[in-house]
Design goal:
Blueprint: E1 3-8, E2 20-23, H1 26-36, E3 43-46
Antiparallel strand pairs: 1-2, 1-3
């Protein structure tokens, strides 16, 4: 099972390139949050069709 972490910036409109951020790991998400949005939260989602 492969999992990604997804962050939604609710201040952006759907379709805006910065509306969603997809991270390959929780560590990558946490590193981005430290520099960009310390109050932000990402949610884990299973990638459908991954091995």
């Amino acid at each position: 099972m492969t999992t990604v972490w997804i962050y939604t910036d609710t201040s952006k409109q759907v379709g805006d390139p910065d509306h969603l951020k997809v991270f390959a790991s929780e560590d990558a998400a946490q590193a981005w949050f430290r520099d960009n949005d310390p109050e932000g939260v990402a949610f884990a989602y299973e990638v459908i069709g991954s091995q």
